Amino acid sequence: MILVWGVPRDPPIAAVTAALTRLGQPVFYFDQHDTCAAEIDLCVDREVSGVLRVPAGNIGLAKITGAFIRPYETSRLPTVAGASPDVQARGAALDEALLCWSEITPARVVNRPAAMASNNSKPYQSALIQAQGFDIPETLVTTDRDALEAFWEKHGQIVYKSLSGIRSIVTCLTPSHRERFNDLSNCPTQFQQWIPGSDFRVHVAGHDVFACQVKSSATDYRYPHGEEETPEIQPCELSADLADRCRRLVASMSLVLAGIDLRRTPDGQWFCFEVNPSPGFTYYEQATGQPIADAIASILTAS
Amino acid sequence: MIVLVASAYDVRALRIVADWGSQSAAILSAEDLCRPGWVFQLPLGSPMTAVIGGRAIPAEQISGVLTLRPCIFPEELWNIQPAHRKYVAAELNAFLLAWLSAQSCPVLNRPTACCLAGPNWRPEQWSQAAERLGIPAPTRRHVPSENTAPNAEETLEVIAVGEHCFGCDDSILRDRALKLAQASGVDLLSVRFSADRSRLLSASVWPSFTDPAVSEAVRQRLENSR
Question: What local confidence, expressed as pLDDT, does residue B225 receive?
Answer without folding.
Answer: 56
